[in-house]
C-alpha cells in the first residue's frame, strides 16, 4: 500500500503542487510528472551526479532526495539555470557558455548535472566553504584546478571530458 502526499515546490521559477507517492524521488517527480528532463537518471544511487540539481541553491543528487522532503523548496535544473544566474545575449549562463567554448562535453549525458554541480560549487567557493583540497582550511578557497577537481568529484563523465570541464569551470569562475 502506497501513501500519497501533496508536495509543492517551485521548479525553475514555476510553482507546482502535485500529489506523489511518498517514495518518489525529486528526480522522478521532475522527469516523470513535471516533464523536466534535463536532470538524468544515471545510476539512481547517488554515485554518478547526472541528476544534480540545485535545491534551495545547494547542489543535491535528485535521485536521493524524496520529493516529500523537498516540499516547499525551490529547485533549479539546467533548464532554469540561465534564468537563475542571469543569461547573456545568447540566453546561456556564463557556465553554460564556458562549457560550449571549452568543448567540455562529448556525449552530453552528464553535462546538465556537471553544470548544475559547478554552479553550486562556485557558490560554495564564493561563500568560503573549505574542501579537502585546501591546505589551510581557514583560508579563502580559490577555484584552482585541484580545488575544482575535488569539489566536482561526485560528478562522473564516462567520456572523460574532465580536462575541459575543469577549464570551463575555471573560466566561468574567473
UniProtKB/TrEMBL annotation:
Keywords: 2Fe-2S, Iron, Iron-sulfur, Metal-binding, Oxidoreductase. InterPro entries: 2Fe-2S-bd (IPR002888), 2Fe-2S-bd_dom_sf (IPR036884), 2Fe-2S_ferredoxin-like_sf (IPR036010), 2Fe-2S_ferredoxin-type (IPR001041), 2Fe2S_fd_BS (IPR006058), Aldehyde_Oxdr_Iron-Sulfur (IPR052914), Beta-grasp_dom_sf (IPR012675). PROSITE patterns: 2FE2S_FER_1 (PS00197), 2FE2S_FER_2 (PS51085). Residues 5-81 form the 2Fe-2S ferredoxin-type domain. GO terms for molecular function: 2 iron, 2 sulfur cluster binding; metal ion binding; oxidoreductase activity, acting on the aldehyde or oxo group of donors. Pathway: Alkaloid degradation; nicotine degradation. PANTHER family: OXIDOREDUCTASE WITH IRON-SULFUR SUBUNIT, OXIDOREDUCTASE, IRON-SULPHUR BINDING SUBUNIT-RELATED-RELATED. This is (2Fe-2S)-binding protein. It comes from Actinomadura logoneensis.
